[in-house]
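Final report, closing paragraph on structural work. Over the funding period we assembled a curated collection of sequence-structure pairs, and we close with a single example.
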Amino acid sequence: MAAETADARLEERWRDILSVHARTMCEIDRALHPHGLGASDFEVLDILASEAPARGDHCRVQNLVGRVHLSQSALSRLIGRLEKDGLVERSACTEDRRGVWVALTARGREVHARALPLQRAALTRMLDDRTAP
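Its predicted structure, as stored:
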């Protein structure tokens, strides 16, 4: 009986986490939609803006895969859309011909800078203990 109760609590905690994640992603999507971005688009731009400068202004696509919670093929499609919109640019990795570098463009930096306060405000609304539902 105690194991069933522990399992039920564990399952409830897991469902709570999923629920918070889903609501937060929807809130970020709503906040960023007027800027032509979704939550996953912003995550890629944000990682590139915050981490790529330490690596010479670019990042390997493979290094983004585990960070944005998308499959490699979905991430490739997302990067393709961002590239088509002029927000990122891809280039071949000279050290490893299988690798691809991705970097923010000047326009990508501008869009990220405009979207950043909106995304952070959505996170605050959804995750701040004083304001979260």
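Residues 65 and 73 are 9 Å apart (CA to CA). The longest strand covers residues 88-92. We thank the funder for supporting this effort.
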